[in-house]
């Protein structure tokens, strides 16, 4: 009997109803078995299933598109605008010119006024204006922020300010931004006392200085973000360039688009490229905001719940060596009783932790992902085996149960047996070796596996994940030196 | 990246076959695109790109199902296998032509049938819900939908083979 004949023997209307239920999401257990049975019996029905899947997809897409177009009151196509007649266009251009001249005159008349930033947008209710005398006032759209006054934002609140000359600033939540230092004169200077401010300065003729406790950022026509934390400041530039100068030693540095600079009390100043430069891209309908904005969005939460690298057992200083790769404010602590490092800032370019366990017993290292607000926010870092004396030891042995047979694994694996292979192209080719061990069998004979990933000596690979809740990643280290580095926030 | 954008519609279909919820599938597709974008450097030129992308997508679907606490049943694995085999061989252009044909065929659907299709595919209602609303049996609704899909399928086939003819009468 060929496929077509076998298919004829199957009741296709019953099959179609089952497929319909599958796409509805209302398939019962009995119906699931019947559908599986149908697939087993006839490859023709598999083809029919995919045909229905394609048609269901096309119908859903097309009908939803039609429905949306109907709601917009048309055929969904962009509207074609007709140009007005010549006379009308002439009048419009003339009116625009007159208006432009009037605006220019008004600006000239206002130039003698005391400079001030105007509040252009307020989000949230936890915002206030602190006056020179220390009095607290409410803040709303069109409020003026004069010299010596400070804008403060609380949880979930943001304020946007404009100086009317092309400088726009956006103070994010938990921030404080003061206009001008006490006793300071021109150029206009905003002091970021805490938090994060995004700045857009498109008007090059008017210089703007954004200062933090540690440094000054001089604008040369750009878009950039600045963060001010207790022990460091950070500048990330998305367009143009800025000049940064550290207050303590007056050392200066230029930061260009795509670069990130961390200023601490004594670190060597040098911009580095963003590790997550791809965040500035737009692809496939997914728009990534730039890394700075992305980092900023999650930074506060990460500060409150830092990423911790822990050891399961108390650290034995004779056998386990842990050190920071380079001095960085991102890794705030190295070595405790069971604490290897605390990573507080996830754009920690250059930050890393080197763990060496050449002679000691197995050491289980945990990397705890902090709780995050966003349901699509995660952390990515690279792990690399720098040297290994015992090649067969597990590097990453994350335990997880699979109640199905992974690709490439023979069904014949018996309980307790292990099978390894290098077939994870999406994990860096043969850099990873996957090992599955069958640990048991479900009542319906489906196998249960646990898996380990091993990273070959001298190889490096990404080791990040997206988590919607606090999560732990576990590594087993023995006889090797590993490097955990390039912690970045991903969205 | 042209490679990636070229097969995105195929990936969307692939994910939808396994996560039959249009918005849910879109979310997973976004994750697939992120992973593909990030790991694009690992793709070896000369090897089938679609197969590589489908492997990545398969793991993302698996990840999504784990996130939604959906167990990986035998059915899901079977459907993943079927979908992988199907889409590894399909030409994206084929789907584009069928989409165009469907658009034309839908013009011939009667208003009553169009309402039924909207309820099922736009509003995402189950046949049972539609049956309750219309005061008819669920079996009747399901049968009517099956016939409608068969008619549309035939109309699409006819349109693609004989463009000027179509099968208007059969759809309405």
Q: In terms of per-residue confidence, which ranges of chain A show pLDDT below 50 for 5 or more consecutive residues?
A: 1-9, 73-84, 182-186, 275-305, 372-376, 390-400, 423-431
Rg of chain B is 19 Å
Please provide the count of β strands of chain A: 31
Largest interface: A-B, 53 and 62 residues
**Approximate helicity band of chain A:** 10-25%
Regions with little confidence, pLDDT below 50 for 5+ residues of chain B: 162-170
Secondary structure tally, helices of chain B = 9
Cα shape of chain A? flat
Give the biggest sheet of chain A: 15 strands, mixed
Report the structural category of chain B: mainly alpha
Kindly name the structural category of chain A: alpha+beta
Label the overall shape of chain B: globular
Mean pLDDT score of chain B: 78
Count up the helices of chain A: 6
Proportion of β residues of chain B?
Answer: under 5%
Gap from first CA to last CA of chain B? 42 Å
| Range of strand content of chain A | 35-45%
Rg estimate of chain A, integer Å: 30 Å
What can you tell me about this protein's structure?
The complex is a heterodimer of chains A (491) and B (172). Chain A is α+β, with helices and mostly antiparallel strands. Chain A is built from six helices and 31 strands. Chain A has helices spanning 3-9, 12-24, 29-41, 43-71, 86-110, 291-304, and strands at residues 116-123, 127-130, 136-137, 144-146, 150-153, 158-162, 167-171, 176-179, 189-201, 209-211, 215-228, 232-246, 252-256, 259-264, 272-273, 282-283, 286-287, 307-311, 320-324, 331-334, 339-343, 348-357, 363-369, 378-388, 418-421, 432-441, 447-455, 460-462, 465-466, 471-477, 480-490. In chain A, the strands form five sheets. Chain A has a 15-stranded mixed sheet that branches. In chain A, strands 19, 22, 24, 28, 29 and 31 form a six-stranded antiparallel sheet that branches. In chain A, helix 2 packs across helix 3, helix 2 packs across helix 4 (43-71) and helix 3 crosses helix 4. The radius of gyration of chain A is 30 Å and the shape is flat. The two termini of chain A are 53 Å apart. Chain B is mainly α. In chain B, 77% of the residues lie in helices and 0% in strands. Chain B contains nine helices and no strands. Chain B is globular and about 55 Å long. At the A-B interface, helix 2, helix 3 and helix 4 of A face helix 1, helix 2, helix 3, helix 4 and helix 5 of B.
